[in-house]
Amino acid sequence: MFRSILFFSSFCLLFSCSNGNLSNVCDVNSNSYLEELLFRITTKDKSFHCGYQIQEPREPICSLSYEQAHLPENWDLVKKEVELQASLGVSGPEALVQYSLVSVQSAIGVAYPAFQSALSAPNGKLYLLPYNSPYIVSIDPNNRSFALSTSVAGVVDFMGGALGPNGTIYLAPHQNNDFFSFDTSKETMSTIGNITMGGAAYNGGVFAPNGKVYFTPGNESTIRYYDTKTKTFGSVATSLSGGIFSNGVLTPEGKIYYIPHDATNIYILDTNTDSVTMHSYSFGGSGNFFSGIYAPNGKIYIIPFNASNVFAVDTKNNDTVTNLGNLPSPVSGMFNGVVLSPNGKIYPIPYNYSNFISIDPRTDSYSVLMANPSTTSYRGGAIGLGGEIYLSPHNADRFDLLDTKANGSFCDSIRLSPYWNKF
């Protein structure tokens, strides 16, 4: 507002010595023009006036909160910052680092499978979300240490979640009827709702620009959401059909692309209208895919589970689908989760696949990296402060990170963004 007043004062000073047409509202020297301009500035009216539109000075993206960064009008700033960090390159080849010699089983006190997905939080920590673990575990990337954060009641009560406003993680109910929130500032759990549902109900969620967290349907066909503004639950009128969806990907247009697992088609939810459309391309079902991620080039990369190849959906070109080709030596259950690094590359998280790989969206090419140390090893990961990816151990009995050797890093506006900080 202060800058708006300065802007108006400069206008007044510029034209104070002129004798303009006082009755012409489009004469820049007239009192009517200046009065109209002041009214539009003070009311933040951005409609066109005499062929011009008021544009307030924009803050750098890293000075905005993550809640603001994913608003559609800020995407160009997000894209510019992500591409800037990628242009800084890397310091060397990627490395798999075991950052704690404590085994997962001894840390949580039960046998694995331990965790399913990980999320970053505004307090600088990352949180491993339980599968069989009786605890949410926090990771401090400053000293690469872990701590038992808070206990949870059941086994596979929830499957992933989404970071909403004010550092609250909204967990996706999987094997029960309760919806939980996790306050990362206090590290406390709360029950925010109860809805009767079938088993394996939802798989993760997406925090949309309208303030709603939309949960990704698993065995449920209804897209349910929690409105973080009104603290109420609701649902989208159109149900999804055809099977299980495993992941949701947010685009700058406020659309969520639901990645098919047992389903054969991508469904697209427009959160501006809560309307649903189906993409015509058939991805085959049969557990072919599990994850997806949006890249700054406007493409969504569909990461294989039982399929042998990666697909790209070009959201800037009528959702055109491109097959990027087969991965070497495909197996069943290949990847579970995917993370964007500040070096500009995409890293699918290996589950049964024998190696880590990277995908470069600038060339749509693969690179095979180091070996995966076990099978059914990881499910998801989250980006650390320096571009390292903290892996969520499932059956891997070790705490690992993938050092992407990025020279750049993501500020919190990007690191916590719902475009990428999700499962």
UniProtKB/TrEMBL annotation:
Name assigned to this protein: Lipoprotein
Organism per entry: Leptospira jelokensis
Domain of life: Bacteria
